[in-house]
Write a structure and sequence with these properties.
Layout lengths: L2 E2 L2 E2 H37 L7 E6 L10 E3 L3 E5 L6 E2 L10 E6 L2 E6 L6 E3 L2 E2 L3 E4 L4 E4 L2 E6 L8
Parallel strand pairs: 5-6
Antiparallel strand pairs: 1-2, 3-4, 3-13, 5-7, 7-8, 8-11, 9-10, 9-12, 12-13
Length: 155
């Protein structure tokens, strides 16, 4: 009988093999977590710059405060439904009221067949209308201005 301090050689080698396997497993998980963290950091550092923003010019009681700002994506939807990019809790705004799209180097505004219409600089929008920085869009009782994006912050 081969025993070392009451434990035979087979049981000892099996125990050491289990510890080695567990150590290798932890090293593998640590390496995967480190790679994921590095990838997440690189993605956050190379996030695309904002394309523009909407600044609230006039609002209704209980709405967003004047001066509030919304960063815009390439496609930004505005409406009362919570699935919109900018959800506006105003009974005069349709569920899917309007959409702003950035194509090439120009912004476009499209009314989504809303009940009360979408207005660009006070004129009703029919179909798709180009808009520039400084133009004002009105949906319901909310009026917003398209502004240039904020300057990128230094890392």
């Amino acid at each position: 009988m081969n025993s070392v301090g009451g434990i035979d050689a087979f049981a000892l080698s099996l125990w050491l093999l289990r510890v080695a396997f567990l150590g290798a497993l932890y090293l593998f998980l640590f390496a995967v977590a480190r790679l994921l963290l590095r990838d997440l950091r690189s993605i956050s550092e190379t996030a695309p710059p904002e394309l523009g923003r909407l600044v609230v010019v006039a609002s209704f009681e209980g709405g967003p405060p004047v001066g509030a700002s919304y960063a815009l994506d390439a496609v930004t939807t505005i409406g009362r439904d919570v699935n919109n990019t900018i959800a506006v809790d105003d009974p005069f705004v349709s569920a899917e009221h309007a959409v702003l799209t950035f194509r090439g180097r120009t912004w476009y505004l499209e009314d989504r067949h809303s009940t009360n219409g979408t207005y660009l600089n006070g004129a009703p929008v029919a179909g798709v209308a180009p808009l520039g920085f400084g133009d004002e869009v009105q949906v319901g009782r909310l009026r917003v201005r398209l502004d240039r994006p904020r300057p990128a912050r230094a890392p």
